Amino acid sequence: MSTAARTSSPTSTPASATIRPDVRAAIAGSVAVAAALGVSELLAGLLPGATSLIASVGQVAIDLQPPGAKDVVVALFGTNDKLALELFVVIVGLVIGAALGLAARRWYPMAVGGFVTFGVVGFLAALGDPLANPAIAAAASAVSVGAGLWVLGWLLPRSEPAPTPSTTASAQMPDWSRRSFLLRAGAIGAGSVAIGLIGRGLLERQRTPPAGSGPDVPPASVIVRPPTPDTDLSTTISGLTPIVMPNDQFYRIDTALLTPSVSTDDWSLRIHGMVDRETTLTWAELVSLPMFEQYTTIACVSNEVGGRLVGNAKWTGVRLREVLEMAGVHGDASQLVGRSVDGWTAGMPTAWVMDPSREPMIALKMNDEPLPPSHGYPARLIVPGLYGYVSATKWLKELELTTLEAFNGYWVPLGWAKEAPILTQSRIDTPKSGVDAGQVPIAGIAWAPDRGISKVEVAIDGEWRDARLSTPISDETWVQWVTDWAATPGKHVISVRATDGDGVVQEEILTPPAPDGARGWHTVSVNVS
What is the pTM of this model? Predict the structure, then answer.
């Protein structure tokens, strides 16, 4: 080999090195977007009126979702659907950032335009938040974009590799420029995550209602007794759902990525539309009305067979019909629309609400505590027997009387049924998979508000038997059921079906939740050893 060949070899560039600058530029772009998002979260937490870019874009995605999207997302992620959406927004943002980093390496103004567009989209999305201040939101978006561009401009020159040494000894030295870039990018990325988490924590605290605002909810004049051992079998059966779900374990499904913050100091409820006289109640006027308590089971229409999107609680509040009577409902008003402070709507038949056989309410307490912010503080609707998407308006702001033909609630245009009574359903809570041979309780819950449950049957390997029921609290609540099983070794299939108070047996054929609730018998396979 010639001397010329030996001296030129160390300076030759391997093929893999030609892509390294692009990879570094992409990393720089992603880190810059992470910085912009982190700053946005921090500003949203520090400045009332500013909003999170992540939450704002995610909320637009919720509002523009195609029919069927809710069913798929809830089936995949359950009550973690909002977290999954926000993580998806972040991931998409980081991918866009990587593309902008590559663009910036070739023509920096293109990246600037991309970041500015990103900020404008976030600002426009933020305007959909009723708690956003447009001026503050615009300033916060500008600062967030500026932070992202500063990070990109600072990292991008450092993404270029150092000049290739001309000697073999130098070529064998570590690539300190690469290591330095990764350390800087990693530090900024970690810092962005940290300030983003701090900002989100401050934002959630900012949206927690202030303690002691407005008069307290007075004691109820009509009270219900707490469950007794014969009404709550979970005290003796491990794994069985309790009759009353604690507030912190109660399912939450709604469209609000950020919990609305509502102070009772300036809260009011407007009743309008097809009424004799438009009426507005302040918080003090609402809590001056007679209070009553009732146990009611509510359910999400997205609940799959055997799912957990159902709960039972003691609710305290005022009778909805009493509030409507203040305004004087027109006889031809066939639909009542509940509207939330964030604009979400649910529409239910007026005839259902006015039927004296059930007691719809404006709930102000949940299990003897003020409504948690995530469950609708300060006031929400509880309408026995209807799925939540047509009735259970949280953060209640308006009641509008109209007709069924004149208005569609939020979910109806997305493919869900206009009228949605809760179906007769049941679930196996225990056993779930493997058990030891011997006496094993098979237990679960069944519900059919507001018809009640008259019978639950359990099939073990195709042979049906009646289960014992807990003493029902009311027709509006679920019941627990249990049957004793002498389990023998091997694989066994267990199914359950319920019969409601009208004598209607739960349907067998399995169907998806859309458009008016899931049907089918919950079935599990159990291995006995």
Answer: 0.82
